[in-house]
Amino acid sequence: xxxxxxxxxxxxxxxxxxxxxxxxxxxxxxxxxxxxxxxxxxxxxxxxxxxxxxxxxxxxxxxxxxxxxxxxxxxxxxxxxxxxxxxxxxxxxxxxxxxxxxxxxxxxxxxxxxxxxxxxxxxxxxxxxxxxxxxxxxxxxxxxxxxxxxxxxxxxxxxxxxxxxxxxxxxxxxxxxxxxxxxxxxxxxxxxxxxxxxxxxxxxxxxxxxxxxxxxxxxxxxxxxxxxxxxxxxxxxxxxxxxxxxxxxxxxxxxxxxxxxxxxxxxxxxxxxxxxxxxxxxxxxxxxxxxxxxxxxxxxxxxxxxxxxxxxxxxxxxxxxxxxxxxxxxxxxxxxxxxxxxxxxxxxxxxxxxxxxxxxxxxxxxxxxxxxxxxxxxxxxxxxxxxxxxxxxxxxxxxxxxxxxxxxxxxxxxxxxxxxxxxxxxxxxxxxxxxxxxxxxxxxxxxxxxxxxxxxxxxxxxxxxxxxxxxxxxxxxxxxxxxxxxxxxxxxxxxxxxxxxxxxxxxxxxxxxxx
Amino acid sequence: xxxxxxxxxxxxxxxxxxxxxxxxxxxxxxxxxxxxxxxxxxxxxxxxxxxxxxxxxxxxxxxxxxxxxxxxxxxxxxxxxxxxxxxxxxxxxxxxxxxxxxxxxxxxxxxxxxxxxxxxxxxxxxxxxxxxxxxxxxxxxxxxxxxxxxxxxxxxxxxxxxxxxxxxxxxxxxxxxxxxxxxxxxxxxxxxxxxxxxxxxxxxxxxxxxxxxxxxxxxxxxxxxxxxxxxxxxxxxxxxxxxxxxxxxxxxxxxxxxxxxxxxxxxxxxxxxxxxxxxxxxxxxxxxxxxxxxxxxxxxxxxxxxxxxxxxxxxxxxxxxxxxxxxxxxxxxxxxxxxxxxxxxxxxxxxxxxxxxxxxxxxxxxxxxxxxxxxxxxxxxxxxxxxxxxxxxxxxxxxxxxxxxxxxxxxxxxxxxxxxxxxxxxxxxxxxxxxxxxxxxxxxxxxxxxxxxxxxxxxxxxxxxxxxxxxxxxxxxxxxxxxxxxxxxxxxxxxxxxxxxxxxxxxxxxxxxxxxxxxxxxxxxxxxxxxxxxxxxxxxxxxxxxxxxxxxxxxxxxxxxxxxxxxxxxxxxxxxxxxxxxxxxxxxxxxxxxxxxxxxxxxxxxxxxxxxxxxxxxxxxxxxxxxxxxxxxxxxxxxxxxxxxxxxxxxx
Lengths: 515, 652
Known about the structure:
Oligomer: heterodimer
Low-confidence stretches of chain B: none
Structural class of chain B: mainly alpha
Helix content of chain B: over 70%
Mean pLDDT of chain A: 92
Mean pLDDT of chain B: 93
Largest interface: A-B, 59 and 51 residues
Strand content of chain B: under 5%
Order of helices and strands of chain A: HHEEHHHHHHHHHHHHHHHHHHHH
Largest sheet of chain B: 2 strands, antiparallel
Largest sheet of chain A: 2 strands, antiparallel
Number of strands of chain A: 2
Low-confidence stretches of chain A: 504-515
């Protein structure tokens, strides 16, 4: 099942490659059909996913090849509570991404569809791979399509943006590669091979001093991908230049690879190091919330504003992850989905208005609510989801994150809470400047409202936004057991760190307590 | 069945939304089509009437069970957020307090819905308006009925959302949209405090179930280790109340909120939503009683707000602005009551205020409607001839607001002042401020009556033809007028009359824990009589002054302005609070945002990133220059490298 879900898009890509480039309509339909089938399979996977256990489900395990030095690499796939929501998010979003390309990808359609499908295999692979080498392989694979999507179909400064994005994340990936190799060879004889779960158990038992460098190597790559402050500057450029569909994928799924990585290959694998790094990362998360919000306040380009809002919202995710409490981590996992939906919707909406008006400058708009009432409804609902209105998805995640981080570090939670205010400031200001007031520009008077395709591609996402807001249990329950397991690992590491040395050095502990 | 109370209005909101979309569709063919939106008031009124009827049924069931002291009705549970050991579930609880609120919300709400059918007729967003209004009633009912603080917060933010949408209802004008945004953001400042307060409660009590928190507060109040955290939690929740109930320092959004349609001001910004903060404190009265310092702060903030609001109302020209500042001021009274530990008295004033202020706003709306959207009292005058029903009902509301003897506001306000007086100590100052505010209230209220309805007509009769509003609007006015007049006598007479105080007896099970923790203050009957007489005297004297000074027109304002131009401007600008926020907070934050975006983000952080990129490529250029094919230089490098390696080897 997982193999099919992961590689079906690749098969679709091959199909598209073999088709004539001129039959645009057919190319789109084949891509849409492929992603839709994957989405259905993803839904089946999600529904069939057993709650109450942290065990890996839908596991696939086949021999693959051996690395020199007798490290067997196997083709291992599986989902657990940490990845199930990410897989479901990816499979769900993709058909809507494909549908959204109708409006803005009119040149070199065939290539774009190929890249979209390759991208999906790469992203799904990242989330389902349970072999470290396989994971790294997918991680790098998923980097390439976006490079071309931005570089070919992007805006004016697309080459600058795409090169920056590519080199920046690649630099992080290379550091992670060093970490991967170090980890594999450290446990060469232990029989774990490249099995992520076995390596997790082994690595988690390492003493703090040994965990720290490995954690740092992984965490840096993920922090760039998320992006965590101060590694965020590639994001706004990439988003600003990317085509709408690229932005939706980037915000919706690609950034989640970073936060997912931080959880599986950071917190779960190196709990002692995570505990040590938690104050720093919570701080970066909390400051990132406020910092991103201030960045967003200063933007005039609507798309850049949404990109900056991502920095702020992902700050919440990082804050919650490194709160290392159940509420915080569970909230973060849910918030990854929420951000994918809300920000995905925001980028779709920005794209729709851009396709009509060919500008995204806020001062070019005003009064669109009168001209495009249906667009206005969708924008307002999405913005409300994004500012965390109770009853919609964002609130559940944010509340749990802030509660969880309050339990761990009340001051950082208090800093994060201000994001609730600043988020309302920039999102409502932008909404007002686009939708409200009198229509002052003649170009805006003749804009057409959303058509059926555009409404149709957003309605299911809005339904999800409401569903998660009212009944988050279906999502929280699926992650609960795995989250609990991770938090227990951290608690075990905390107990080790606190316990007096067996050799009788209580003095050291006392000193630490005094400080 | 109990879920019907909030869910019927929610269903109504959804139906109105469908009607709105259908109307938009119809308008594509004919731009001025009314389409199916004409059905919206029927749907919306039916939904709220349904909620009211179910509330009444629940009330009688509860009243029948009142023999048992802690009787309540509870609905099935909405299983919401579960993580680890924490469960945030929401059910609806109908106890004496929440049902009182539910009756006010759905009852007054129904009257305002009916009134709106006349007031908003012909508006292009007719169906949308009723959808928002129904959504508001849903959220407000969730707020008052939820068993849990998170459920309360759903309503809390929900009413904030509806307030935002309805203030900015006429969004094409621009400034209403800005006012709506301001209301939302300022409320969010309070909400941020509220959230942190809720985290503290989870920390201390392990739950956000309101009954548990209230009950355990009584037990834990004696634990000295917890007192700081309990106090902090109470303080933070009060921060939320300050935002929602427009108290100092967050009251600045309420006057601007008058940009919305007038029935909205009546429902949301006078009768119901803005009293949510009062409800919150009463609901958690043991938590606040456990922290007397915080409770006194509540009272002092209330007193200061009452005074600032009343003085700001003195010289307003816009009739809705007078009522807005008056609302700020009256909400201050309710907080004064809370500060004195008179929780039931706060609810008493909340209820009577819902009657008379809702009435005054609706009557003012009737005036505005009849004057073709004129709100400036200086361009009114003499309207009593043109709108007799509006005039008479407005008089009833004015009498109640100014606390003329035997009116509803007279009893509820004097009860608060009596409690403030009885508390004594530093609270005597609060009492004095309350008394001064009462005098100011009587003055500005009757100034408003005189300027609007008496004197000569200061509008151009060729252009404006004032007319009485249709019965669909005046009927709600008459009902509210009746309630404003008899509401006090019916609900609660002072102890000196030796009859049971109906509302106090009813609310006793809810407020008793907090009141017992604080201990009661008693006044002798003689002192009470004196206070009652004093209240009546002050109200009558200043009402008379205000009415007669302005009966001939706005000349006294001009005299004041000539005599003390600075003071009048200061008061008209509400003590310049809003202006100074704009200068000292809003603008610096904007500057800071641009500073961060340009200086820190683009120059420093992105500069470093791009610098690193450039350095790498520059290094590459150097390396290329080094590999220039010159064998001799290669030999030198090889030699140097070997030597360096050798050195390292020797050392290590």
